[in-house]
Structures are given as structure tokens and as C-alpha cells.
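Section 5: illustrative case.
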């Protein structure tokens, strides 16, 4: 199986935090760009954060300073730490490794 597997989604109140994890198959973890996308209800899917194969990190402007992407090569795992969550962060979050997409994990932020 080469599909990434996300975990860590859930429901949280405004201002809360969640940490998403993504187990990435070893065969595609190294040498690939790793990213988190999200699909908010009724809106287009958007790139939240990305680490390219050189380690360069980028963020969606609306999450800068609140979200942190990281990876643990020893565990072939990608993370997304999400702090100061807002209702507009509600979405299904997807982990992407190279061109392989996970099934997604729901994040719901309520006021």
C-alpha cells in the first residue's frame, strides 16, 4: 500500500489546537514533496502547507503563524500542528506525498 494515512482530526473550539499526523509509506517518504491540503465545506480545495524535497517550507497565508508542518524521518511521518484554530479552518485535511493522497481527516472548529 502506498497511500498515506492521516490521523488526529476531530472537533475543537475556537482558539484550540489539534495535531494531525500522516503515516507515509517509506517508499515515497524520501525524495518527495510532502503536503497538507484541505477542503472546506462549499469551497475549493487549497494547499495548506508543503515541504519540498529540499526541505523548503511554505504555508497558506491564512495559516501562517498558527500552523506548523514538520516531519519525522525516523517514523516516516508528517505532522501538522494547528494552533489558534478558527471556524474557517473547518475542513477535511489531506496528506499528500508525491502524488499519493490520503483519505482525509475531518477537522471541525466550533464557536
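Designed sequence:
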Amino acid at each position: 500500500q502506498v497511500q498515506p494515512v492521516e490521523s488526529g482530526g476531530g472537533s475543537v473550539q475556537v482558539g484550540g489546537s489539534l495535531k494531525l499526523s500522516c503515516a507515509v509509506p517509506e517508499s515515497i517518504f524520501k525524495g518527495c514533496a510532502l503536503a497538507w491540503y484541505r477542503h472546506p465545506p462549499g469551497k475549493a480545495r487549497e494547499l495548506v502547507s508543503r515541504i519540498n524535497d529540499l526541505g523548503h517550507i511554505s504555508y497558506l497565508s491564512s495559516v501562517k503563524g498558527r500552523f506548523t508542518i514538520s516531519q519525522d524521518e525516523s517514523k516516516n511521518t508528517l505532522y501538522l500542528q494547528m494552533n489558534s484554530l478558527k471556524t474557517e479552518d473547518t475542513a477535511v485535511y489531506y496528506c499528500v506525498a508525491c502524488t499519493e493522497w490520503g483519505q482525509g481527516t475531518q477537522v471541525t472548529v466550533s464557536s
